[in-house]
């Protein structure tokens, strides 16, 4: 086993264990963990079965197979980032709606308080 | 009698907001006035309240789009027939409120925009801004199919159905221009009417001359996004 193979197995296995541990401890919501689990497993699989990686590398014309691993990892990172941007957009919209509701409700409460004083 | 709500978005405008509220109340005494304070650090809320407006306070600053939308949500919740937007910096002439409300009451339009460029008043933009305004005017007129001369004007009157729509979907980034595109896509009738406007009395324009080219680019991009957006 080459050094780069050992290294990538350790890293991807470590990542997978970390993700599972975060889910177990409630630090990471399942909803956001799917892409992390899938990507760490695929990178792990490609690190273990080098034959598959080599064949894909030949197919794509990549001369140094382990560099294909970087490409795969990069693609997953991009997907995860996109996923985050979507999640942030949804949260931004919800925060806005909550803040607007609070503004209106607070005014209603104050108005009701003024009525009582009279 | 149509119930009219005047929505005044304000951010750090303690020096002008009270005068705006008073002037608006004087010119349309039958309307209710709500000031939406977008997390101002100064006494905007206090000044607005002392001038007799209902004040809605955002907990933090969210920008003009979210601020106007809070006003629309308030209008929807309280069953108003017409919502009029008037800026808190005093550049919109309250004596013209009746002019932009009239076509909505008569059912000639769902949204009426008060334009500075239809011959009334003597507002003169700088060269850079004038060019930008002309380009927006061309693009938006082409999309909407009606001549729009003042696409960034925030002096507008909306009918009941527009209130209902905008309360749920108000654009965040460049709301004045974008709302025109979205409302047109939803099939609302939009028109302009002439109003004179003053130089702003206080506060600052959100657009500086240096950034105007970049601003134009971003607005164009936003318009393109609105065109491909699925309207709910």
Walk me through the structure.
The complex is a heterodimer of chains A (118) and B (232). Chain A is mainly α and 118 residues long. Chain A has one domain (3-117). Chain A has helices spanning 3-24, 30-48, 50-60, 65-117. The radius of gyration of chain A is 24 Å and the shape is elongated. The model of chain A has no long low-confidence stretch (mean pLDDT 90). Chain B is of the alpha/beta class and 232 residues long. Chain B has one domain (4-228): Alpha-Beta Complex (Spore Coat Polysaccharide Biosynthesis Protein SpsA, Chain A), CATH 3.90.550.10. Chain B has eight helices and seven strands; from the N terminus they run βαβαβαβαβαβααβα. The chains are: A mainly alpha (118), B alpha/beta (232). The A-B interface holds A 96, 99-100, 102-104, 106-107, 111 and B 36, 54-60, 62, 66, 69-70, 73-74, 77, 172.
Helices, strands, pairings?
The complex is a heterodimer of chains A (118) and B (232).
Chain A: H1 3-24, H2 30-48, H3 50-60, H4 65-117
Helix pairs in contact in A: 1-2, 2-4, 3-4
Chain B: E1 4-10, H1 17-27, E2 32-37, H2 44-50, E3 54-57, H3 64-77, E4 82-85, H4 97-105, E5 111-115, H5 127-144, E6 156-158, H6 160-168, H7 175-185, E7 190-194, H8 212-228
Parallel strand pairs in B: 1-2, 1-4, 2-3, 5-7
Antiparallel strand pairs in B: 4-6, 5-6
């Amino acid at each position: 086993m080459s050094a780069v193979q050992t290294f990538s197995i350790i890293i991807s296995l470590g990542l997978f264990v970390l993700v599972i541990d975060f889910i177990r401890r409630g630090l990471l919501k399942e909803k956001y963990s799917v892409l992390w689990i899938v990507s760490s497993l695929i990178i792990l699989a490609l690190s273990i079965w080098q034959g598959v990686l080599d064949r894909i590398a030949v197919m794509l014309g990549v001369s140094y197979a382990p560099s294909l691993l970087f490409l795969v990892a990069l693609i997953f990172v991009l997907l995860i980032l996109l996923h985050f941007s979507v999640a942030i957009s949804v949260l931004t919209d919800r925060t806005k709606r909550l803040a607007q509701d609070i503004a209106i409700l607070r005014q209603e409460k104050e108005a009701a308080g003024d009525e009582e004083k009279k | 009698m149509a119930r009219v709500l005047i929505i005044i978005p304000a951010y750090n405008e303690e020096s002008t907001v009270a005068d705006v509220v008073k002037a608006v109340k004087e010119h349309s005494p039958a309307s209710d006035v709500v000031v939406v304070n977008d997390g101002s650090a100064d006494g905007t809320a206090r000044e607005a309240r002392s001038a007799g407006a209902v004040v809605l306070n955002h907990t933090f600053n969210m920008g003009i789009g979210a601020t106007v939308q809070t006003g629309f949500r308030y209008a929807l919740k309280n069953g108003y027939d017409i919502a009029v937007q008037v800026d808190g910096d005093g550049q919109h002439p309250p004596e013209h409120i009746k002019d932009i409300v009239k076509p909505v009451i008569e059912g000639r339009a769902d949204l009426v925009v008060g334009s500075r460029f239809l011959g009334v008043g003597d507002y003169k933009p700088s060269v850079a801004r004038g060019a930008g305004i002309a380009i927006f005017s061309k693009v938006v007129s082409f999309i909407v199919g009606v001549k729009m001369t003042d696409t960034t004007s925030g002096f507008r009157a909306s009918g009941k159905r527009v209130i209902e729509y905008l309360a749920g979907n108000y654009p965040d980034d460049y709301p004045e221009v974008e709302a025109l595109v979205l409302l047109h896509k939803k099939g609302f009738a939009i028109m302009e009417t002439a109003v004179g406007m003053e130089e702003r009395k206080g506060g600052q324009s959100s657009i500086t001359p240096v950034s105007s080219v970049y601003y134009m680019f971003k607005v164009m991009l936003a318009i393109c996004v609105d065109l491909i957006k699925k309207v709910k």
